[in-house]
Design a protein that fits this description.
Elements: H1 11-22, H2 26-38, H3 42-64, H4 72-114, H5 121-137, H6 140-153, H7 156-161, H8 182-194, H9 201-204, H10 214-239, H11 251-256, H12 267-298, H13 304-320, H14 325-365
Keywords: Germination, Membrane, Transmembrane, Transmembrane helix, Transport
Pfam family, one: Spore_permease
Family: Belongs to the amino acid-polyamine-organocation (APC) superfamily. Spore germination protein (SGP) (TC 2.A.3.9) family.
């Protein structure tokens, strides 16, 4: 009998769960970051980052295929023993917690700046945590269904962002490789960090119903994210000048301010209201991973109590802490540094180690 038989997700839900986790806060600032490093050639770095993310996510799947009913929390103790396995377990939980804090407080900061400037952050936190609690409480199956609904609900958003293309000029993109390959290679680090989210396959893979499609699903999920990043980045590069884009804090939101309709005065407010759903598909999976990992650590099968405590801590913290833009940037940089190791270097090392360990085990049996 399958370990998670009653909480399985379909391949489509798995795809939307991974891509939803990736398309979060990164697309708001990615064009400016790439333009600052590689000018308008930054879009090439997205393509390279897409290839690297596919390789890294495939390595994760190949590692998990060896024990299809285990999460990273099970694998860590299976291969590294009680002490060092527990350390890896705690490190992965800490990574998910840092990602959760970053996404939640970034969402609050953006909401206060662009939509509700006079609303206390603890009220916004409560509004975020209430639906998040019920979605996370019901497990991965509900997470998958929610990610699928949000994907279809917000499918129009990237398409609408492309509207300003008609007012831009393609000459901003020319010539290609204007500064050579060095800036592009340097910008690849920024793009690979924008693809963070696929590493949660370490947790969600055992819940996938048809595991034979796991690699294909990861390729599709990364491709959806890459197409979204490319569309928004190229639109910003074409609409804004190469000198203007790096100076914008949130270029994607600045782009939305140029979209005008006779019946809507501030379209960016409407867009952001829907975009909060997209951000929730990034934050909620990391929150689930955090509470699920803590529950596994303390030997609890049900993560509801841990989730309730976590939600209360988030709300209590929001009474004492109101993040500034500098704090949001600092949290993001910490997440990126941690994520570079957790999503790219750690899977490679784990794959090599588990392969060698299994080879030795087969040798002993012979």
């Amino acid at each position: 009998m399958k370990r998670y038989q009653f909480n399985e997700i379909t391949t489509m839900q798995y795809i939307f769960l991974i891509s939803g986790t990736q398309i979060g806060i990164g697309i708001l600032s990615l064009p400016a970051q790439l333009a600052d490093i590689a000018n308008t050639d930054g879009w090439i770095a997205i393509v390279i980052g897409w290839i690297i993310s596919i390789i890294a996510s495939t390595i994760i799947i190949k590692t998990m295929e060896k024990h299809q009913q285990d999460t990273i929390f099970d694998l860590s103790r299976r291969y590294f023993g009680r002490t060092f396995g527990t350390f890896i377990h705690i490190a992965f939980v800490a990574y998910a917690l840092l990602a959760s804090i970053t996404v939640v407080f970034t969402a609050i900061h953006i909401t206060q700046v662009w939509i509700l400037p006079n609303t206390p952050n603890y009220l916004i936190m409560m509004l975020f945590m209430l639906p998040g609690f019920f979605i996370t409480k019901n497990g991965v199956r509900i997470l998958g269904r929610y990610a699928e609904v949000v994907f279809y609900l917000t499918l129009w958003m990237p398409i609408l962002i492309a509207v300003p293309l008609q007012k831009g000029t393609i000459l901003h993109m020319l010539p290609m490789l204007k500064e050579g390959w060095a800036p592009i290679i340097q910008a690849v680090k920024t793009t690979v960090l924008s693809f963070l989210g696929f590493e949660l396959a370490f947790v969600f893979y055992p819940f996938l119903k048809e595991k034979k499609h796991a690699v294909k699903a990861m390729v599709i999920a990364n491709s959806i994210s890459a197409l979204t990043f490319l569309l928004i980045t190229i639109t910003c590069f074409i609409f804004f000048s190469p000198d203007e884009t790096p100076l914008l804090i949130w270029p994607t939101l600045s782009l939305l301010k140029t979209i005008e309709f006779p019946f809507i005065e501030r379209f960016e407010v409407i867009f952001l209201s829907f975009y909060l759903f997209v951000m929730s598909t990034t934050g909620i999976p990391y929150i689930f991973t955090t509470v699920f990992g803590i529950s596994q650590l303390i030997g609890k099968k049900d993560h509801t109590i841990v989730l309730l405590v976590a939600v209360c801590i988030f709300i209590f913290t929001s009474f004492l802490y109101n993040p500034s833009f500098f704090h949001v940037q600092t949290l993001g940089s910490w997440w990126e540094k941690y994520g570079l190791w957790g999503a790219y270097f750690f899977p490679i090392g784990l794959f090599i180690y588990t392969s060698i360990a299994r080879w030795f085990q087969r040798g002993k049996k012979k």
